[in-house]
Every structure is written in C-alpha cells, then in structure tokens.
Amino acid sequence: MLEDLEIVNGILSPEFDIYNNIYSVDIASDVTSLVINYDVPDGYSVNIIDNADLTAGENEVYIQVIKDEEINTYTLLVYKENLEEVINYEEFLEPVEIEKEIKPYTPYLIAGCCLLLILITFYVLFLRHKKKH
After folding, report:
1. Residue 55 · residue 80 · CB < 8 Å
2. Which DSSP symbol is given to 132?
3. From CA 102, how far away is CA 108, in angstroms rounded?
4. Which pLDDT score, from 0 to 100, does residue 50 have?
5. DSSP 102-132
6. Among 37, 64, 67, 96, which is 20 to 30 Å from 23 by CA?
7. Residues 43-47: what's their mean pLDDT?
8. What's CA 6's distance to the chain center, in Å?
9. What's the mean pLDDT in 64-77?
C-alpha cells in the first residue's frame, strides 16, 4: 500500500489518504505524462501503467503496489485541458466592407427615437399616475 502520493505536475484531488484508491488529477495542456512521487514500505514494488502520451480530456493512470502475490491498484482519473482554438482569429483579420452608406441624419434619428421613448415612459409612469390621485 502507498504511504504517500504526490503529483508534481498536476493537482491531486482529494488529498492523499492511505484508505482511498481513486483520485482525480488535473493537468495542463502541455503535460504528456505525470511526474509521480510516492512512498511505499520496504519490500513493496510499484508499477505505473498508462502514464505516457496523455491526451486532451479524460485519461486513466494506474499505480500498482505489489508485494509477493498481493497487488493493490490506485486509479488516477487524469483530466488534461484542451486548448484547441474554437475561433479562427485569422478570419477576423480581413477588412469588413460596408455595403451601404449610413445617411448623415441617422444618428440624430436614433437619438430622437430614444428620447421620445424615454418621455413616453416618464409620462406613463409618473404624470399619468399623478392625475389619478
């Protein structure tokens, strides 16, 4: 059985407990294998399985602690960040063409409509309410 377990290039969760055999580990996207520090009692050997070429997403790494014919296996559920680009920024580097020119009075028209809506809202909420009293 392991006496101590540490993942140098990842975050182990929950903290190591000699009675727990399943852990999750979060690693960065550039990590390809775990750097594992462990302690075992004298006479035990350790075999680490599937700790190479970790891919984006979920991976499983196994730590076998062996003494004579007794094998105790610890499972590490390793989650590797996926940093693939979702948006291709090169598409945004092309200039945008405007099909139609905006009329010079358009901003004034928009501002006037907004002001009119504000005045109507003010009237409905406050002045109309005052007349009822």
Report:
1. yes
2. H
3. 12
4. 96
5. PPTTHHHHHHHHHHHHHHHHHIIIIIHHHHH
6. 67
7. 95
8. 22
9. 94
- In the predicted model, is pLDDT for residue 28 greater than 60? yes
Q: Would you say the pTM of this structure is higher than 0.85? A: no
Tokens of 108: 């004034």
3-state secondary structure of 68: coil
Residues making up the chain, counted from first to last? 133
Hey, which bits of the chain come out as E strands? 4-7, 11-13, 22-27, 36-39, 45-49, 57-67, 70-80
In three-state secondary structure terms, 70 is strand
Strands 70-80 and 22-27: parallel
Looking at 3.30.565, 2.40.160, 1.10.287, 2.60.40, the CATH number of the domain 4-80 comes to 2.60.40
Cβ pair 45, 64 in contact under 8 A? no
